[in-house]
Amino acid sequence: MKYYVRTTLERKLDETYSQIEYDLLIDKEHKPVESFIKQLELISEENSVLLEDDLILCKNFKQKIEEIINQFPDKIINFFTFPDRFFKTQESQKFLWNQCTYYPKNISKQIALVMKKIKKQKDEIGESLQYDVLEDLALKELDMTHIQYRPCIIQHLDGKSLIGNRDSGRMTIYFIDYLNELNITYEEARKQENRLKLKYKLLETKKERGV
Predict the structure, then answer these.
(1) pTM (2 decimals)?
(2) Domain that holds residue 140
(3) Which of 44, 76, 92, 191 could lock onto 109 through a cystine, CB 3.0 to 4.6 A?
């Protein structure tokens, strides 16, 4: 298993990244879509986890993520999507967000090739798409589903977006560390009183991290 972190070197990685050994994939030209496609090709030679550089990794992250991957070794796994929604781990055709994703060996190169083709078609008509949207279209063309995993084992950090997305509202209350600290199961997280407790934990994180 290899871990990769996408970055432009403009952010300092949170200290929780020290839990894993990783390679940096640096976008020096600030071309998020083009660099992402190249990076998918690069990581395809082995089972890989691709992370963004604006995350908090949960406690015991490496152990947890590898236990989950062992449950779905041949499936793409998206560990952070629809951050404000409660849902159980599910298989889906709708791919959005790309903060922490597992790609089985040889899969990401296939996706990259289709993304290139779709991007060329969109460029010709003057339509610009974010890379997660392009990936969603590519997965549909390849007829590939993926696992949307819950609870979240990473937390997105709000702050200035470097790719033009929204700068707030990107954090989740369904972060496993919050659940464990409050002794709330994920199933119990749907209850209103527990959602309020989790929201307070999220506010604490924002205050501590200055976001």
Answers:
(1) 0.93
(2) 2-209
(3) 44
